Amino acid sequence: MTGSLSLTRAARLIGVTRAELQRRIKHGEMVSHDGMIPVSELLACYPDAQLEDDAETRRIAQIKERAFGKRVFERALPEPEVLAARITELGKTLATSQAQVERFKELLGRLWDKLDGTPGLSAAELKEWLEQEVDLATEPGFINPLAVKDNVLRVMTAQVTILPSRHDFMVEGHDSLLEAAMRAGIPLSYGCSGGNCGLCKAKVVSGEVRKTRNHDFIIPEAEKAAGYVLLCSNTAVSDLVIEAPVADSVQDIPFQQIEAHVKAIGHINDDILLLHLQTPRTKRLRFLAGQGVTLKLGQTFSALQAIASCPCDDRNLLFHIHRQPGNLFSDYAFDKLRTHDAVEIEGPQGEFILHERSPRPLFFFAFDCGFAPIKSLIEHALSLEVEDIYLHWIGSSRQHIYLPNIAHAWDDALDDFHYQEHVAGFDLRNLGGKREEALIKLLQDIQIADAAMLQGDIYIAGPDEAVTVAERFFLEFGLPKTRVSVSRVK
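Below the sequence we write its predicted structure tokens.
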């Protein structure tokens, strides 16, 4: 097996994360060229990894899935037609390789003839060495385990590269191209997800796709001939290169109005309600992690609420509703809202989003219900395989740290995830005087314990007064505002 591999494919073959490979490249342990890793470099760093079944990596992946409420992905075989097409494609590659070997042997024959006409011992020694090397390389039964594993991977999955952004992802099982991209945390453009609107139309530059379902949207014949398909209605037969827009900012996400229904309501404790809304299959909410939407209950009461779930599951939306006595929206949610009730969604809103291209470690500060948008950001970071994540959840009381098991699961499952809980002992929504001083002292203690924090990106969410104090605390160290992101949660 020769040539180079993308970071995504190399990580899959070896059984490590993309972040680990990126870290080795950054530290000079491995060389890459234009995002591609030479196979020789990969084998030098991981001489035995391709021989092992990395069960631990799979276990961690499953724990990650369970930890933030996503379904455990069933790594099913592709549909029979797709599987057959991939095997046929692999057969063509094998035939080409065999033809190249024959041409290589002919070239060696001409090299022998040339060397025979060269006087001197050095040429004979060179010929003997070349014969030994060729015999070794073509020894019957010689198997490159990495090449075998890569061939199996090509049958089970297909890799997709997006232009011009250079994002890449794997298509597994029965996933459509759109579903696989969303699972990988890549915010492609789409609308209905059902083949009606055409917003997920993209151009196939190279590779082969197969339609998985019919769609009502009509692609003009000229565009079909140019390679345009709907990502929601096609899957990858072979490795693909496609041209498709990827959302880089909140301006790339359209304003949407959707009627969702209550899938489930759960009381986390007396003061926190877990609201699970589900959108129609053909009208899902497109949003970026960390954003919020306006929810309208009972056709009258509305409030802006942070989304507490990952954009990778755009149909199932989670919200943490805080009890506020006398607030009409809160009272309705706690006392009158029932399963299957309709809830109007408008949005998304907000610029509290992840800076995906930043190489710095991530430090999250959640004050009370600020955990909702922080949870969305962390889940998105995990889908991108970001490492070096630090979470500090600061509660007015122990009860305000209302979902500690989720954070503990991340901490237990991931080597580079670090979680700490802090109880302030006073209402973080009502600061002033000694309370503010106490909060600053707590932040100072956290910062002193981890000096690297000032080298990272800071994300702060929670009640307005607590967020304002924390934001000012980090800006006073000289950090630019672009590295201190805040979300004020009511």
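The first strand starts at residue 4 and ends at 6.
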